[in-house]
Amino acid sequence: MSLNLILMGLPGAGKGTQAQYIVDKYQIPHISTGDMFREAISNETALGLKAKEYTDKGNLVPDEVTNGIVKERLAEDDTKPGFLLDGYPRTLEQADALAQMTEDLNKPLSAVINIDVDPKLLTDRLTGRFICKKCGATYHKLYHMPKVPGTCDVCGGHEFYQREDDKPEAVKTRLKVNIKMNTPLISYYKDRNLLFNVDGSQSIDEVWQKVDQILSSL
């Protein structure tokens, strides 16, 4: 029985780490929209070239092209044991298209894993990062402070800065956009009894134990 999964979660929820664990243990390909686009474009498939026309101009790739690229990817041989979709679907229209293509390919979804973390905690996680101006070493207010306050462990520099997209306002906007996008999808998969919520505020290992438990039971 193949393991056909979608992984969901807000920025900073720890999706990337869990995706790696799932791929390593269950030996299924991790399919993210970015990778799919890059692959289709570099292989110069008809849909890849179509997508390139949009991305070159900085425009969003329309659904019918995105859906076509996903279907091409899911039809490849390495998805026989299953797949892990990340970053798709993003809209209810895409979710409907995915339901249709998984039916056409006879690869029905097994589960949707949503790593659920309170947005306030995510704000703390995402805004805590700061960087040494001199050498680029990265620190975090919650998880990794310099050994000597105000002094970089690597180069001894004393000036630090925060990236624009790590600043509180930018992070809040990013989370708001993602919450708005994810909420209808969470309801959609809950209604279809495919949704499993995992508390992502726990340690990485505890989250993985829970995810692994769910996948082993499928």
TrEMBL record:
Record flagged with keyword Nucleotide-binding: yes
UniProt domain Adenylate kinase active site lid: residue ranges: 129-165
Keywords noted in UniProt: ATP-binding, Cytoplasm, Kinase, Metal-binding, Nucleotide biosynthesis, Nucleotide-binding, Transferase, Zinc
Keyword Kinase on entry: yes
Compartments, as annotated in UniProt: Cytoplasm
Pathway: Purine metabolism; AMP biosynthesis via salvage pathway; AMP from ADP: step 1/1
GO cellular component, one term: cytoplasm
Region annotation (NMP) ranges: 32-61
Binding locations of ATP: 12-17, 129, 138-139, 202
Major site of localization recorded for this protein: cytoplasm
GO molecular function, one term: ATP binding
Residues reported to bind AMP: 33, 38, 59-61, 87-90, 94, 163, 174
The enzyme's E.C. designation: 2.7.4.3
One BP term from GO: AMP salvage
Recorded domain comment: Consists of three domains, a large central CORE domain and two small peripheral domains, NMPbind and LID, which undergo movements during catalysis. The LID domain closes over the site of phosphoryl transfer upon ATP binding. Assembling and dissambling the active center during each catalytic cycle provides an effective means to prevent ATP hydrolysis. Some bacteria have evolved a zinc-coordinating structure that stabilizes the LID domain.
Function summary: Catalyzes the reversible transfer of the terminal phosphate group between ATP and AMP. Plays an important role in cellular energy homeostasis and in adenine nucleotide metabolism.
Oligomeric and partner information: Monomer.
Family: Belongs to the adenylate kinase family.
Protein's name according to its UniProt entry: Adenylate kinase
Source organism (scientific name): Lentilactobacillus kisonensis DSM 19906 = JCM 15041
